[in-house]
Specification:
The protein is mainly α. It has 11 helices and no strands. It is 73% helix and 0% strand. The longest helix has 23 residues, at 211-233.
């Protein structure tokens, strides 16, 4: 698998050395797909706190859907429906309408027990919510969340019975764009090299139409997001 995305073993060692002590590196399916990140308590008055909670619901939903845990997916779909009205004051009209459509799509897909379609709507809801957060008070730049989005979406696309290479290619290009912007905000060369290698591996896998390579690169993106979030939590690192 490593060979298929052309990421050297040294890069994996580097990721482990840079990752927080409790980074979810262990290869259990749920840890991989959820890519859970501990979130510090935030004051309820902070609008970003409510948006972050809603984003977390969708992170959970995607991972549970990929694990095939339908009952728990149902709980997250219900949670998003119940949360939707509270997000109305925090979103523009267009963003709220788009989010509402994604929640409806989640419900409709889940009613057919189509977990991948449910996850597909959920990951788009995640992107809407993350982009709605106030940029100045985010703990890390929005591009970090967009790499997270890419890792989740590529994981979903990689789980489909037939690969949608057009969608995979578009998602990979979007993640390259996010990384191009983010790279300039990182001073640690080793971290720059790490994410650049992951992105190169993803591009190579897409070019070869290597679905296993795409899935592995998606996993690596999710792991790298934890490292990037830790980087921006350090004092003085927030641009």
């Amino acid at each position: 698998m490593l060979k298929s995305v052309m990421i050297a073993p040294a890069i994996l060692i580097l990721l482990l050395s840079l990752a927080p002590a409790q980074s979810p590196w262990t290869d259990t399916p749920t840890k991989l797909q959820l890519a859970q990140k501990s979130k510090s308590p935030v004051k309820e008055a902070n609008p970003n706190a409510k948006l972050a909670d809603a984003a977390s619901i969708n992170e959970d939903l995607v991972g549970l859907a990929l694990d095939g845990k339908a009952d728990r997916v149902a709980e997250r779909v219900t949670a998003m429906r119940n949360t939707l009205s509270s997000l109305r004051p925090l979103l523009s009209n267009s963003a709220f309408d788009s989010l509402g459509r994604q929640v409806t799509e989640m419900e409709q897909a889940f009613s057919k027990r189509d977990l991948l379609a449910t996850a597909s709507a959920s990951v788009e809801a995640y992107r809407i919510i993350e982009n709605a957060m106030d940029a100045a008070s985010r703990p890390s730049p929005v591009e970090v969340a967009m790499l997270d989005y890419s890792g989740f979406k590529l994981s979903i696309l990689g789980a489909a019975p037939v690969a949608n290479w057009a969608a995979i290619s578009t998602t990979a290009k979007e993640s390259d764009g996010a990384w191009s912007t983010l790279a300039n905000k990182i001073q640690e060369k080793s971290l720059q090299n790490l994410v650049a290698a992951i992105q190169e591996g993803l591009r190579n896998a897409v070019t070869r139409k290597d679905i296993d390579g795409v899935k592995f690169a998606a996993k690596m993106q999710l792991e790298a997001v934890d490292v990037l979030e830790d980087y921006f939590k350090r004092a003085g690192k927030r641009p």
